[in-house]
Design brief:
- Pathway: Bacterial outer membrane biogenesis; LPS lipid A biosynthesis.
- Its EC number is 2.3.1.191.
- Catalyzes the N-acylation of UDP-3-O-acylglucosamine using 3-hydroxyacyl-ACP as the acyl donor. Is involved in the biosynthesis of lipid A, a phosphorylated glycolipid that anchors the lipopolysaccharide to the outer membrane of the cell.
- The protein contains 4 helices and 38 strands.
- By secondary structure, the chain is of the alpha/beta class.
- It has 3 domains: about 90 residues, MurE/MurF, N-terminal domain (Udp-n-acetylmuramoylalanyl-d-glutamate--2,6- Diaminopimelate Ligase, Chain: A, domain 1, 3-Layer(aba) Sandwich); about 200 residues, 3 Solenoid (UDP N-Acetylglucosamine Acyltransferase, domain 1); about 30 residues.
- The chain has a 10-stranded parallel sheet, with no helix packed on it. A 10-stranded parallel sheet has the order 10-13-16-19-24-27-30-33-36-38, with no helix packed on it. A 9-stranded parallel sheet has the order 9-12-15-18-23-26-29-32-35, with no helix packed on it.
- The chain is flat, with a radius of gyration of 26 Å.
- The N and C termini lie far apart (about 90 Å).
- About 35% of the residues are buried.
Length: about 350
Amino acid sequence: MSTLTLAELATITGGEVYGDSTAVVSSVSPMERAGKGDVSFLSNSKYSQYLTDCKATVIMVKESERHLCKSNVLVVPDPYVAFARVAQALDNTPQPAVEIAATAVIADDVVFGDNVSVGANAIIESGVVLGDGAVIGAGCFIGKNAKIGQKTKLWANVSIYHNVVIGEHCLVQANTVIGSDGFGYANEKGEWVKIPQLGSVRIGNRVEIGAGTTIDRGALDDTIIEDNVILDNQLQIAHNVHIGYGTAIAGGTIIAGSTCVGKYCIIGGAVVINGHITIADGVTITGMGMVMRSITEKGIYSSGIPLQTNKEWRKTATRVHRIDEMNKRLRALEKQVEQKRDV
């Protein structure tokens, strides 16, 4: 079990120590459950009244809440970021694989960096390059000529198709598929003619991809995920999509082909984004949004209907179906008003 002193926490977070710098913690806990040996934090000031009863060995807060704490305190600019840093330092998640499993099937010409690990029953095909410290989980498939950067981790049963490039310090959760064919077909008199998907997928550095996500290869050019992007579980990212630096996309979102998503966008869960459109930098799209046209200005956009009781929803649906009729009546009334003004 990892342990850290309050002084070490200060080094990790850049915080200022108040109390016993030798106090030791081994885990991070929420304020209501924290006890001896725990470090806790306050990221929302509306819960500051709970600080006086918190039993954590160390509490991370902003300067404005320091006077409310009875235990050792670490004053930090942003307690939530401090929590993330400390949780990383105390993380005890096991590696997806350790060393090279005897049951792994590895082509003779695979290029290995130093300290690479490959799990049981993984298959790594010809021409693959694995960077220093790369970890390939059990049952993974790495296709021909793919490149995996240093310190990148793939959890179990990830499939990486041929020629895909993944950068450094990435994390790919289980059952994700990267580089599968995009949905490209021509129609000839009712018969579907498959268009070979000749591009690939290029993923930058420090990208995290959730479980069960699919990222299709490009039809001609590559599908591109830039650095510092985080993708949740069960996303569908179609061929030739380009996702900009620092963007975050929540679970269940679908992005159709050839769409360009800007930098630092935040896209909520179950959003549907049309193909061949552009979304500007810094756009936030709330959950269940449906994006049919390009978004050219930074801002927050919504289109999902919040949950109502069934009775209220039926009334709303009825009004929506009558909207054309209501619009015609409104225009007729406006015309009558204009005619009276002209008299």
